[in-house]
pkdcc (Mytilus edulis), 277 residues
Amino acid sequence: MNEIQILKYNGGEGGWSKNVDIGTFEGQKVVIQRLRPIPRSGDHDVRLNMFLKNLLMSDQLDHPSLVKMFGYCFRHTKAEAGYEQTSYFGDVSVVYEYGMGLDLNALNLTIAERLNHAADLSSLLSYLHYSPLGSLADFDIKPEHFKMLNGKIKLIDLDHMNNVEPTCSLTLSTSHKNFKPCPFNISCQELTEIEMRYTKCQTVKCDLGVCRGTNVKYNLQKMNIFFQVLLKPKFFPDALKYSLSRLLTQLNKTDIGVDGLEKEIRNITLAYTNLKT
């Protein structure tokens, strides 16, 4: 940490829970995120939880389209003046790759670059769905949380990710005081044996189910804004416009899964390659 040369303090977008410094390490530009709570502030525990969740998610997830964490530093502060009565025990700094702000509409992309970016994002969606932590939904997907780094679009800020999907009733098709219908017209499905262990269903007859598949549908819906720009038919040869329009319609209706999305983008990329030969 001491080898990082700070170029600018508070020079990045830190949001609600952190401050962001810009620096260099071994010739590479990096981002240093810091959470230093205000003594006797009432929200520092919440901010700490969000900050540490982002750290842990970055440590456990590994994909080329997720910003890379280089390391972190934890400094004990319990005995320092102003912190004696707080439940917060330390000042945490985390070092990440540095990426540039991204405005897809302003980028001058070739057809190959558009297809590559679309393939990368579809691969990310697939990874989140099949992740080692279960099917993950990122409830804070927005353009500001994507950066351009070495020609690749990368997602930052993972503190709103969750692997819990909505519960539902297996015996009711309409909403009532305890359950709502599953979103995206998903059918209520039975709990697995592992999921059952965390309910009271072991000892009593239970109609509790899960809206399995909600997380991946949510990510597809939120990421659609990128596909609509990257795969806009007007940028492509006439021979590809029908396939692109059909795919974008499926995305608008969340009527396609991550496997189907990856396959369609591969097929369109292959068709484009064949057109050039």
